Amino acid sequence: KSHQTNQCVCKVLTVDTMNSCVKKVEYAVRGPIVLRAVQIEKELKEGVQKPFSEVIKANIGDAHAMGQQPITFFRQVLAMCSYPELLDDDRFPEDAKGRARRILQGCGGQSIGAYSASQGIECVRQDVARYVERRDGGVPSDPDNIYLTTGASDGIVTMLKLLVAGEGRSRTGVMISIPQYPLYSAALAELGAVQVNYFLNEERCWSLDVSELRRALADARRHCNPRALCIINPGNPTGQVQSRQCIEDVIRFAAKERLFLMADEVYQDNVYAEGCEFHSFKKVLFEMGPEFSSTVELASFHSTSKCYMGECGFRGGYMEVVNMDPEVKAQLTKLVSVRLCPPVPGQALMDLVVNPPQPGEPSYSTFIRERKATLSSLAERARLTEQILNTVPGIACNPVQGAMYSFPRVTLPARAIREAEERGQAPDMFYCMKLLEETGICLVPGSGFGQRDGTFHFRMTILPPTDKLKILLSKVKDFHQRFIQQYS
Amino acid sequence: MSVLRAISPDLSRIRLVDQDCLSKRAAQIREALLQGLERPFKHLIDISLGDAHRGGLQPITFVRQVISACLYPSLLDSGRLPTDVKSRARNLLKQCEGESVGSYTATCGLPKIQHSLSEFISRRDRGVPSSPENIFITSGSQQALMLVLRLFVHGKGSLQTGIMTPVPSSPLFNMALSSLGGAVVPYHLCEEEGWTLRLDEMRRALATARRHCNPMGLYVINPGNPVGQVQSQKSIEDVIRFAAEEKLFLLADEVYQDSVHDPTAEFVSYKRVLHEMGPPYSNTVELASFNSASKGFMGECGLRGGYVEFVNLDSAVMGHIYTLFSTEACTAVMGQIALDIMANPPRSGDASYTAFFEEVQNRRNTLNNNAKRVQETLNSLDGMSCQPIRGGIYAFPQLHLPARAVAKAEEAGVAPDLLYCMLLLEEMGLCVGPGSEHLQRKDTHHLRLCIATPEDTLQEVLERLSTFHLHFMRLFSG
C-alpha cells in the first residue's frame, strides 16, 4: 500500500488530475454487488462452503444467460454471413440463404469483416425504415434518419453528447424518470449535465403524471436549462407500459416546453399485461397531426438485446431521429463517425429482426412458434413474479406490465436502516448484499436506479427459467421474513 | 428554430473528414456504373480505407469457421468442420453464460480471452509478465483510445488537457480528442529520415503547447499510420525517457504490430522496452498499449475487436476506468472471439494448422510484395516520392505538385491533394485518400493508399495511378 502511495506522487493520472466528472459515474447494474457476486462464484469454485451451490445473477437483463434459446433463423443467417461456404449447405433453408446473400451484398468486399459506413449498412437502414413504417401503421420513415448503433446505449449516449452544452445556469438539464436505467445518470454525470428527476407514480402502477413533469421542469429552470426529456417505455426497472393518452400528454408537454424527446423503446415487444399495448412515440406523434408531427424533435431507440431475441452479445441497435435540424444532423453524422462503425454482425442481426420470415416462407412457422413461446413464457414469469412477491408481508410488487424486471418495494425495519447507515451503505444495498451472502441471489438495490426518499426497492429480472424462478422467489420470501425478524 | 441549435462548441470543432466527400462520390460512381453509365474504366477501385476485406483480401478460414460454429452450434455435429475448429468453438461456448454468444460477457471481456491475450503479450515480449486484469477488451482500439481520453480530458483555457499526436496523424484520434474538448498538440515526424520521431521536434512541440494548454499525454503510433515507420528500440527508449522526464502518459497505438515488411526492421512493444529499461522507468511510466483484430493478418475491422493493456496505472484510477467502461456493457462477442484466435492461433499438429499457416503466409507475402512494388513504382514517377514502407498497411507518398496545380486547388477552395484525389477518382475510377486529412507539413501534399489488397489489384492501382499522374503533371506544368 505504501509503495502505491509513493507512486501516486509521481503519477500523471491520479484521481486528482483526471477528469473529475468520471468520478461521479456509477452503474449499479454492473456495480459493487455484482463484483461481490463474481467473487463468491470464485470462492464456490475453490470449494468454499456456502449455504448455496450457485450464484444466480438476476441483476442483469440477459435472457440467454438464463437459458433462453436464440431464434434459429437468425443464427442460421448469421452463420452463413460469417462463413459463406455454408451457403451451399443443404441444412439451411432457402429463405435464410437469401437473407445472408443480401446482407453480404451490402458489405464491403462482401465480408462482415469490412467496416461499414458509420451510419450503418445502407440496405439495413432501409429495412429498418420499412419496419418502422409497418409497425407505425404507415407513418413514413426515411432511411437517412436511421442510425445503426452499438446497442441502444451507444445511440443514447451520442444523443446526450449532442444535447449537452452551456455553463452554469445555462448548463443543459435532461429530464429522466425516477426510477431510471442508470446508463442515463452515468452519461449525464460524465457529461457534467444536470439530471432533472421526475418521479413515476408508484401508487398508480408507475404511471407518468404530467403535473409531475411540470413540477420538475419548473424547479429545474431555476438553476439550469432543461432541453430534453427521456422516457423509457416499456419501463426499466419499473415495467410499466404507458397508455396512449400518457404518450400524447408527454408529446404535448414536450412541444409546449420545447424539449427534445428521447424515447427508449428497447422493450417494445415485451408487453404482457391485459389491456396494455405498446405505442411508439413516433406513431402517436404523427397521429396527433402536423402541429406536433412537424415540430416536435424526437429520437427513438431500439436494440437487439431484449424483446424475444435477447441477443445482448451482438451489440445491435438503431435510433431514428425525427424533425432534427439539418445542421444538427450533420453534427450527429460527424459524431458517429468518430467511433467508426457498429459491429457488423449486430447490424446484420438487426436486419433480420426488422425483416423476419414472412408467411409462406420456409422458416416462417418455426420462427413464429419460437417467438411466441419465448414471449408467452416471459409473460407467465412476469405474472408469477408479481403474484409470489405480493404474498410476502413487507414486499409490494406492482404488476410487471412489460420489460424484463420486477421492482418491488420492500419495507425495512428501522434497526436495519440504522445499521446500514452506520456502515455507510444504502439500506437496500445492505439488504441485497445480505441476500447475496445468504442465498447466492444477486439483485440490484433500488438505490442504483433512484427512488423516492425513504423508500427501498430491488430490481430482479424475470428471466430465470420458470422452475428456477419459483425457487428463487421462495428463497427471497424466506430471506425477507428472516431479515424482518432479525431486525425487528 | 431547433432546440439543438446551441450545441456544444466542441462538436462543431471536429473537422469534417474529406474522406466523406470522396467516399460519397465513389459510391455514386459505383452506382452509376451498375446502371450502365459509360466511363473510361469498367470498375471502381477503392483503396482509400485501411480495410483489407473491402480491398479484396479474404478472411482467414479458421476464424470464420469458429465464429459460424459458435453462432450455430448444430454445426458442431456435422462433418463439415475440422476437429480443432469444433473444440475451439465448444470451449468458447462453455465460457459464455448460457453457452450462448448472445449473452453479455463480463465488462472487460470473457476472462478466458483476457487470459489468452495476456499470454500472447507475454510471449511476444519475451516473457515480460502480463496480467489479465490490466487488459480491457474493447470495440476496436478506437473505443479503448476514447475510454482513456475520457479519463484524461477536461479543463478549459490554459488548463485544457493536451495530448501530443504525430503529424501525419490518425484523423480519427484527433477527431476523438477534439470531440471530448481536448487539445491536439502536433509533433512532426521527419519525412526525409523515413518518418522518424525526433526528440528535438517533440521538445519544441511540448514547449509551445505548454503556453496554452496542459499537455498530459503522448500518443505514438508504431508501426506508423499512415506513414509506415517502425521504431527502433533506441527510438522507443528515447520516447519513454522523454515521457518520464516531461511527465506524460504514454498511449502506444500498436495495431499494426503484425505488419512489418522490412526484413531489417522489427516490431518491439513499448511495454517490453519499458520493462527492459528497468527501474525507475519500468515501475513508474504510465502506459496504455492498444491492439486490434482489425489489422494484422485477420483484417476483421467489422467485428470490432480490440484491447488496451494498462501498465503502472494508479489503482484508484483503474477502479474508475472499470466503472466508466461498465456503462457500455461489453464488447461484441464475435470481436472477442476474433481476438482469441489472434492471441492463440492454431498450432503445429492441429487439424487446421497447415491451411491456416498457408493463408497467413500468403497474406504476409502479399503485403510485403505490395509494399515493395508501391515504393518502386511511385519513386520512379517524376513528382512523387515515397519513403520506405517498413510496416503498417499504407503507402503515404509525397506529391511534388506544380505551382499551377496548387493555385488551381486554392481557386477551387480545396486542399491540393484532395483536388488530385477527386480528379483521379473521376478520370481513372481509383479512390485514394488525401494527405490533407492527416495534417502534414505546410505546403507538402501526400496521398494515402491502402496496400492490404490482392497483388493484381495493386498492379491495376499502380497502372491507373501512374497514367493519371503523368497526365496530371503534364497538364499543370509549364
Question: What about the largest sheet of chain B?
Answer: 7 strands, mixed
Going across the biggest sheet of chain A, name each strand in turn.
2-8-7-6-5-3-4
CATH architecture assignment of the largest domain in chain A: 3-Layer(aba) Sandwich
Task: Sum up the overall morphology of chain A in one term.
Answer: globular
Which secondary-structure class do the elements of chain A indicate? alpha/beta
Keywords (chain A): Aminotransferase, Pyridoxal phosphate, Transferase
Catalytic activity (chain A): L-alanine + 2-oxoglutarate = pyruvate + L-glutamate
Pfam families (chain A): Aminotran_1_2
InterPro entries (chain A): ALAT1/2-like, Aminotransferase_I/II_large, PyrdxlP-dep_Trfase, PyrdxlP-dep_Trfase_major, PyrdxlP-dep_Trfase_small
Care to give the gist of this entry?
The complex is a heterodimer of chains A (488) and B (478). Chain A has 488 residues and is α/β, with parallel strands linked by helices. Chain A has helices at 2-10, 20-23, 32-45, 72-82, 94-105, 122-135, 151-163, 183-191, 210-221, 244-257, 281-287, 290-293, 326-337, 344-354, 364-389, 414-422, 427-439, 466-487, and strands spanning 56-57, 146-150, 172-178, 194-199, 225-232, 260-264, 298-303, 316-322, 395-396, 405-406, 409-410, 441-442, 444-445, 458-461.
